[in-house]
Design brief:
The chain is α/β, with parallel strands linked by helices. It is built from eleven helices and eight strands. The protein has a single domain, classed as Rossmann fold (3-Layer(aba) Sandwich), CATH 3.40.50. The chain is about 35% helix and about 10% strand. The protein is globular.
Length: about 325
């Protein structure tokens, strides 16, 4: 990381993203309760939705109309000798590429990386205005299908840039989803590094809330119908049993997990860690004891972003900024 760390205040964006998460949960219930209302909402917001920066022929097969975050999806970008692997950013549940990567994308671009970001797992009619724009939110579909979307996007990036491999950086579900792609969909031959910010690598108890689902089956079904990824990420789900049926990692891929002790979403936080000789499990507060970043804010934490940069380019790692 030769470029000084971008100073970025997480608090305003954190408030917007927390608002977006709440709006997403409410939208989930509305979608299940009234598909017509959801479709109408999507139609009303169509003119307000920024378009993607990539030509339509280069978009993933499912299409994408969400604005790219600053610095991402310049399809004319060519990797350099200093940064030969393009970086693909993978957002989390109830998120989109624009809001999730407002901090990291321009930082990596300023450091000379070719940066790309996709949206996946979209459910029509569910939108968020957390950033002040009416944007679809994703990370809701079945994770195996979302991983296939990621695979198609990786192929587009490799074709456009001429790169043999990419590095994958994800947040929450987006930090775990690349591991499914690497394990089961042939991604190991196309990926050099997987870096997860608060990834749901082994599922979550949601601080114990998920354990209450059997006692409120109708509520659980309401959520899981619109957000199949939510069901997949619960501890001991069929999806997580499949993930556990093979080792955490595959040879040839380097993994970094960056967790926070204040994570209230992927719990317990140490469940995010991976086992393997090619893994670096990092607790944010071990590097910066004063950091109060939790599950959302970790994607905007200067310390966490510095750790991402060091993981992408360990040969030029710099002392970690604490703030």
């Amino acid at each position: 990381m030769g470029t000084p760390l971008l100073r970025f205040s997480a608090r305003p964006v954190r408030r917007r993203l927390i608002g977006a998460l709440g709006s997403g949960l409410l939208a989930t219930a509305l979608l299940v309760g009234g598909p017509a209302a959801g479709a109408a909402a999507a139609a009303d917001g169509a003119d307000a939705t920024p378009t993607a920066s990539a030509p339509s022929a280069q978009l993933p097969p499912d299409g994408d109309t969400v604005a790219s975050p600053p610095g991402a999806n310049d399809w004319s970008c060519r990797p350099t000798a200093a940064h030969p692997d393009p970086v693909v950013l993978v957002h989390g549940t109830f998120a989109n590429r624009y809001e999730n990567w407002l901090a990291l994308s321009p930082l990596l671009k300023s450091q000379g990386y070719c940066v790309f970001a996709l949206d996946y797992g979209m459910v029509p009619g569910i939108t968020s205005s957390g950033s002040g724009l009416l944007l679809p939110i994703g990370g809701l579909g079945p994770i195996d299908e979302s991983a296939a979307q990621l695979g198609r996007f990786v192929d587009l990036v490799r074709a456009a840039t001429g790169a043999a491999k990419v590095d994958l950086v994800g947040h929450s579900q987006g930090g775990m989803l690349p591991n499914y792609y690497v394990k089961f969909l042939g991604g190991a031959a196309k990926v050099d590094k997987v870096i997860g910010l608060a990834p749901s690598n082994h599922g979550t108890t949601l601080d114990g809330i998920a354990n209450l689902a059997p006692y409120f089956p109708r509520v659980a079904e309401l959520i899981y119908t619109a957000c199949k990824a939510c069901r997949d990420q619960v501890v001991d789900s069929a999806f997580n049993r499949k993930m556990a049926s093979v080792p955490d990692t595959v040879p040839g891929v380097r993994y970094t997990v960056i967790s926070t002790v204040y994570d209230e979403v992927v719990t317990p936080y140490r469940s995010q860690f991976l086992s393997g000789p090619n893994v670096d499990n990092v607790v944010l507060q071990d590097r910066c004891p004063i950091s109060l970043a939790e599950h959302v804010a970790i994607a905007f934490s200067p310390t966490a972003l510095h750790l991402v940069g060091n993981a992408l380019d360990p040969a030029h790692a710099t002392p970690v900024f604490c703030g």
